[in-house]
Amino acid sequence: MRVAVIGAGYVGLVAAGCLSHSGHDVVCIEKDARKMALLKAGRVPFFEEGLEELVLFGLKRGLLQFDGQMEACQDREIIMIAVGTPARPDGRIDLSQIYAVMDEIVFRARFPQTIVMKSTVPPGFGVNAKERYLERARVPLSYLSNPEFLREGSAVRDWYHPDRIVIGGDDETAISRLARLYAGIDAPIVTMDVSSAEMVKYAANAFLATKISFINEIASLCELVGADILPVSRAVGMDRRIGDQFLQAGLGYGGSCFPKDTCGLDFVSTCNGHAFNLLKAVIEVNKRQRLLAVRRLRHVLGRLHGKTIGVLGLAFKPGTDDVRESPSLEIINLLLDEGADVRAYDPLAMENARRALPDGVFFAPGVMEAVTDCHALLVATAWPEFSTLDWAAVRPVMHPPYLVMDGRNCLAAEELRQKGFLYWGIGRPYPVQGETRNPLIKTGQIFPLRQ
Ligand code: UDX
């Protein structure tokens, strides 16, 4: 089939690469000239496992092209929209890029085409868009909502092995056309109306975020009563009704989706006169998890001014170079505010972090340079490089109290304690001898931090 994908971000580029690999004739339209130049040369502007190979393969077979102009979608049966829908400070979604491409599509349409919305848009958008745009077109255009559930770091695998394909729309011909595009992918296709499909995306992300905040609350309680979150979450997750995923306590969720979509759904709720209090709490807990790390560092080290803290991990999760809404970036900003010296390291995300952080952070070329001279380390991303680090070599280059704050519970706690570190995980027993409970929580002082 002849497909146009508008937007060469994570979703658009993965869709374009995978569809061309499956034999479809794909043009990917991107207005950013820098990105376009890289893509035409077969280079992907961000790290995503396996994607560059797919792009190169598509370019070589002539099934994938890149174009900077919207004209390129004029002769395509299917037009997928995968442009950014960033959040505004109040949580409202900025739909300006969507409006701009919808305008162009409608203006250029010369034969019946199917518009497939892959970008995350607020529930109700599609119904509105149909009235606002499609009715103006000179030819009949169909509109389908087809939300994407790809995870960064495993997006290519997720494309070929989704749990389900959700299609929202009322045009049966268009739905079967889109279903044909996915022929070969072994997953149930669930059809519904447009608004419901839009809601599925928000509900799924909000639910996963809820699991994370829930387990983080249980982790805080574990510290209060002297329990350990690791066996607790493992055993809770063994209940198949609950499932073992998204139950890892830590610094909370980051990335381009969960923070934006939880706030976006909260905004939609408020606009519709509904107070989604559960979701508000999920968002609040996630904010607190980041502040918790700073509070703990201050508790052990005293004033942070003049202390050196190594932050290991800048990406919002392992397997990606993406630092959007990454907890470690926010924590580093707080540490700098308090006068700490920060040494930062990430195996993949250094460049992106450098652009996002203010001056004053020392970006270490390797993990050993990052830990050198530190009073405390904060592991903020669960990269395997940190769990397999030669910790025996780390202690001699650090200063007392040799604090290791394991913000992702990914290190071997006992081993680190034996090697002379003051190990403290999230929801794990308090590290000071004779104390099993976290005194910060006990005194009720853990939140809020000073602004
Ligand atoms: C997410 C959704 O999983 C995906 O379906 C959607 O399309 C986009 O948003 P992604 O942002 O790539 O994908 O990351 P994901 O692997 O879901 O993790 C999100 C965040 O939650 C990360 O910061 C991760 O560290 C955190 N997380 C995840 C936890 O803190 N605990 C967990 O148990 C799982």
From TrEMBL:
Give me the reactions it catalyses: UDP-alpha-D-glucose + 2 NAD(+) + H2O = UDP-alpha-D-glucuronate + 2 NADH + 3 H(+)
Q: Where is the active site?
A: 257
Question: Which pathway, per its entry?
Answer: Nucleotide-sugar biosynthesis; UDP-alpha-D-glucuronate biosynthesis; UDP-alpha-D-glucuronate from UDP-alpha-D-glucose: step 1/1
InterPro entries noted in UniProt: 6-PGluconate_DH-like_C_sf, NAD(P)-bd_dom_sf, UDP-Glc/GDP-Man, UDP-Glc/GDP-Man_DH_C, UDP-Glc/GDP-Man_DH_C_sf, UDP-Glc/GDP-Man_DH_dimer, UDP-Glc/GDP-Man_DH_N, UDPglc_DH_bac
Q: Does the keyword Oxidoreductase apply?
A: yes
Q: Which SMART domains match?
A: UDPG_MGDP_dh_C (SM00984)
Q: Which UniProt keywords apply?
A: NAD, Oxidoreductase
Q: Name one GO molecular function term.
A: UDP-glucose 6-dehydrogenase activity
- Where on this chain does substrate bind? 149-152, 201, 246-250, 254, 317
Q: Which residues form a coiled coil?
A: none
Pfam families, per database record: UDPG_MGDP_dh, UDPG_MGDP_dh_C, UDPG_MGDP_dh_N
Q: For binding NAD(+), which residues are annotated in this chain's numbering?
A: 35, 85, 120, 152, 260, 324
Q: Which PROSITE patterns match?
A: PROKAR_LIPOPROTEIN
- What EC number(s) is this enzyme filed under? 1.1.1.22
GO BP, sorted A to Z: polysaccharide biosynthetic process; UDP-glucuronate biosynthetic process
**Domain UDP-glucose/GDP-mannose dehydrogenase C-terminal, chain residue ranges per copy:** 310-413
Q: So what family is this one in?
A: Belongs to the UDP-glucose/GDP-mannose dehydrogenase family.
What name does this protein carry? UDP-glucose 6-dehydrogenase
Q: Which organism is it from?
A: Desulfofundulus thermobenzoicus
